[in-house]
UniProtKB/TrEMBL annotation:
InterPro entries: CB (IPR044068), DNA_brk_join_enz (IPR011010), Integrase-like_cat_sf (IPR013762), Integrase_catalytic (IPR002104), Integrase_recombinase_N (IPR010998), Integrase_SAM-like_N (IPR004107), Recomb_XerD (IPR011932), Tyrosine_recombinase_XerC/XerD (IPR023009). It comes from Corynebacterium liangguodongii. GO terms for cellular component: cytoplasm. One of its GO terms (molecular function) is tyrosine-based site-specific recombinase activity. NCBIfam families: PRK00283.1 (NF001399), recomb_XerD (TIGR02225). The gene is xerD. This is Tyrosine recombinase XerD. GO terms for biological process: cell division; chromosome segregation; DNA transposition. Pfam families: Phage_int_SAM_1, Phage_integrase. It is found in: Cytoplasm.
């Protein structure tokens, strides 16, 4: 009756009705296995348990699919209450599962090395591009933070750099020997050929002004194409990779939080999910009883 109501009163498409019919059958089957044959016997805890089972079963559903399954179950209960079949709609207070956080795209260590090696160092702009990619990965800086670095910030030859983040909050981040060498090479053989104005920015374009965010994206995407990396990456991918590789190497979350400039460790913990996914995949591949 409910599906007929959707078709006639709501004008639901055949595709939608097919999906809802499947979800309704799954829900009623779950109730039957729980020993419930009447919607009037269902309370909110049953619906919550149903959604939980969908998310953690042998073939767990994505949160979006589980949310749709709950929409169908709630539709059944709402229709039953409206038709007087049950006394009240017990599903109204049951919230759909959270959408969950999308795990960021990352590169493996080998892919990062290929990306960097795909930046030649023959011309001034090539030296700049190599220094930019090395800096993004070495520091985990946001692209805007990297583009705000000035010559004075790196002219002392130190192996650390002060990065200015959101809200003008500053943090000290190790630069690393490879990034330091790339920056030094760019300062000696690259930047002087590009500098034609008064800009103090470290990374310059051919006009002698600060490199734009869009140009930085072009640099990274061009290097990825030359390296044969078919992932959809951006400068931010290097930030994600920086954090993931640190955690995989044994760094604690609080340290990575400080290096990334996150105000809350909760933001940083997304990267622990990434490393957990990596561990799970390795386990599935290597464990004899996976």
């Amino acid at each position: 009756m409910w599906l007929d109501h959707l078709a006639v009163e709501r004008g639901a498409s055949a595709h939608t009705l097919s999906n809802y019919r499947r979800d309704a059958a799954r829900y009623l089957g779950w109730l039957a296995e729980a020993g419930i044959s009447d919607l009037g016997e269902v309370d909110a805890s049953h619906l919550e348990a149903y959604v939980a089972d969908l998310r953690r079963g042998e073939r767990p559903l994505a949160s979006s699919s589980a949310a749709r399954a709950l929409v169908v179950a709630r539709g059944l209960h709402k229709f039953a209450a409206a038709e007087g079949v049950v006394g009240s709609d017990v599903s109204a207070a049951v919230a759909p599962p959270g959408a969950g956080e999308k795990l960021p795209e990352t590169l493996s260590v080998a892919e990062v090395e290929r990306l960097i090696e795909a930046c030649p160092t023959q011309t001034p702009t090539q030296l700049r591009d190599r220094a930019l990619v090395e800096t993004l990965y070495a520091t985990g800086a946001r692209v805007t933070e990297a583009l705000d670095i000035t010559v004075d910030d790196v002219s002392g030859g130190e192996d650390v750099i002060t990065v200015t983040g959101k809200g003008d909050k500053q943090r000290i981040v190790p630069l690393g020997s490879h990034a330091r060498a790339a920056i030094d090479a760019y300062l000696v053989r690259g930047r002087p050929a590009l500098a034609s104005g008064a800009s103090h920015a470290l990374f310059l374009n051919k006009r002698g002004t600060a490199l734009s965010r869009q140009s930085a994206w072009t640099v990274v995407k061009g290097a990825a194409q030359r390296a044969g990396i078919d992932k959809d990456i951006s400068p931010h991918t290097l930030r994600h990779s920086f954090a993931t590789h640190l955690l995989e190497g044994g760094a604690d979350v609080r340290t990575v939080q400080e290096l990334l400039g996150h105000s809350s460790v909760t933001t940083t913990q997304i990267y622990t999910h990434v490393t957990a996914e990596n561990l799970r995949e390795v386990w599935k591949t290597a464990h004899p009883r996976a």
